Fold each of these.
Amino acid sequence: MKIKSIGIILTLTIFVSITFVSCGNKQPAMVTTTETLTYEEVVRDLFGGTLNLMDRVRLSKDGTYRVGIDHFGNVIKLPMPENINRVVATWNSSNQTMAMLGAKEKIVGTTLNISIEEWFRKIYPEIANVYVTNAFGSYNMEEIIALEPDLVITSGQDDWKLFDDAGLTVIALNNNNYDEMKQTATFLGDVLGPAHAAKAKEYCEYVDKNIKYISEIAPVIKEDEKVSVFHIRGQLISTQGSNTMIDSFITLCGAVNSIAASISGSRNVTIEEIIAVDPDIITVSNVTTEDIYGFIMSDPQWATLSAVKNGRVYKNPVGVYNWDRNACESALQILWIATLCYPDYYPNIDMGSEVRWFYKNFYNYTLSDTEVMELLAGEGTPQV
């Protein structure tokens, strides 16, 4: 993670909403307090001179508030945990993280994709009635302020500044690999309070356990047995190359990201590029209304690929949020892709049991046998 705010004086704004009750109507009075600190001062005085990316929240010197440093190096003045009860989550993945941490009831603002996601509605039906922040493609700041959020979560600096300028307490989170995913869960857990921090710790231990198991077996796979994978990320020709979450889970199990040698990061590729690498396996994260899987299996150009000829095109599980994204259930993706690529090398992985345990332990939701089969078959709500 690159800290962008080193040496820069940041203005920290805390938005405090005081509610007066008169004749049964709420009349919020807005009080804004501004304090100026430098990143260096915060790291020196509160973090002992070195920032541990798994430990980024500290109590202020006077003990009246907390200070956190988010993914982008923003220094944020945070309310105490007992005062964070209303959260606006504008990043899809952060909604799932809130649910995994046992804080889904705190969500008062969500995204359009999450509001219609079938599996999210299963574990928390009330999400269908939560205010949608991006229903019309952009934020209505007046409506979001009217929600009286104690915290806003976003995923980029532009949005962070937008909410910060509006006087709201906002953190910006993101992750492109499993280390950063654990950092995100840990930071948000610490922000929300001890019980949620304990759940984040348990989650990180589960991720580490899965990575350790896969990593110990992957080196044993012989070179002539290694398979190449082309992963479709939402749209027909959209994928990710090196230095991405998708590359991480493909390479962890000993497989080869077929497109990684050609591209870094996320971008669209041409059918000619896909034909040139001729992947052994194609995995499809169908998060649009387009039937990508059906198109691949019926299109003459795609029919020339080894993966299609050999019947090795698979729908990627979706879940509460997409397994292939920088989100919590990517901890299950590690195991799923391993069993898909090398069933003989990973015979002890029982995906049905793993999914059941994950959903019960982190979402307090008991999956039926039918739901387990549907989830693993990649049956979920297409996103818009």
Amino acid sequence: MEPNDLINYTGTAINFKNETAQTRGIQLEALAWKADYEIGEAKIDDQHRQLVKLANNVYAIVERGEEGEDLLDAFEALISYTEMHFREEERLWLKIDSAHFTAQEKDHDKLARELRELIFPKDAVAQGKVGANLKEWLNARLLPHMMEHDQKAAAQIGA
């Protein structure tokens, strides 16, 4: 799947998720986008919004109790897009010779590994907790990364 395919794939799923949330009257988002999350670099901000949409799509599938191929496809879309986004960010930070490049690269590697482990947990106790684990990862790891590391790096280019 190519990055544009991921956006198209999730667009449909997200629309379905929102309809389901309205008809069931429950909250199916792990994370709502806020302007505070923006770093001021349009391309990166757009990618961050897409990451949140993809994560919310996975979360919604889990909350609806769906398993199997739909969940794996949605999670693989999230993982693939996340990895593509990290490569894009790293190219930008390298291009501007960011002092934060090495720390970003290391954190990206760790975040990608953590994300993969959410769907394929090593600990059997974690099975069945993908939604809760994803929500926790978003709030405890991805958001702080965006708001601290990415904002510092973006400030270097005057974004």
Amino acid sequence: MPTEQRLENVKPELAVTRPSPPAPRPSPPAPRPPTPPAPWSAAWLAPWLLLGTCMVLVPCVLRQQGRAWWCACGRPALWEGSVWSSHCSQHFLDPYSFSHLLHGVMFFLAFAWVAPRLPLIGRFALAVCLESGWEVLENTRFIIERYREGTMALGYEGDSILNSLGDIGCCALGFLVAGRLGTRWSLLLILGVELAMLLWIRDNLTLNVIMLICPNDAIRQWQMVH
């Protein structure tokens, strides 16, 4: 048999036995967002019932604690800009409302990390519930005295009920804002608000926590300059 003919007979056999390249591995599926609960289901109703319960219970508990509905001046206002005025924490909003806005931003980030599968409305309801609990705790005699002894709030006598509701509303707004901004811009918002409040009123959420837990005389003296 001629050499060319033998090579032609061998080549097809070699082509058949040549191993094929391995198939590419499929990429893992992207995580799916939590499915919102069906309207009027138990999972849909529970967060709304929790929100409604908070909005009813908080004013009742604060009133039971002796808190006034609004400022003793008898003229409730939307905004009080001075932290040194006796009207601070007595009207609907004041400079510390921005700290409560940050509460909501931080709640959003925390729940997105620890409970990513929980529907958004459920996380929102938990944030409002936690903020409501803090408003009740903040207006107990123990915390009021702690503020008076350890922070710049020397004449603090507790929040009015109107102001507490404003604080809860600011927390809810902060949660919704963080949901629109995402993690990176939410962190920048926290930093920006903290710096702005430090320059504006020499107080912010960070200093408030520090002075409440571990008062520092040097910080307090610096804050008293106005």
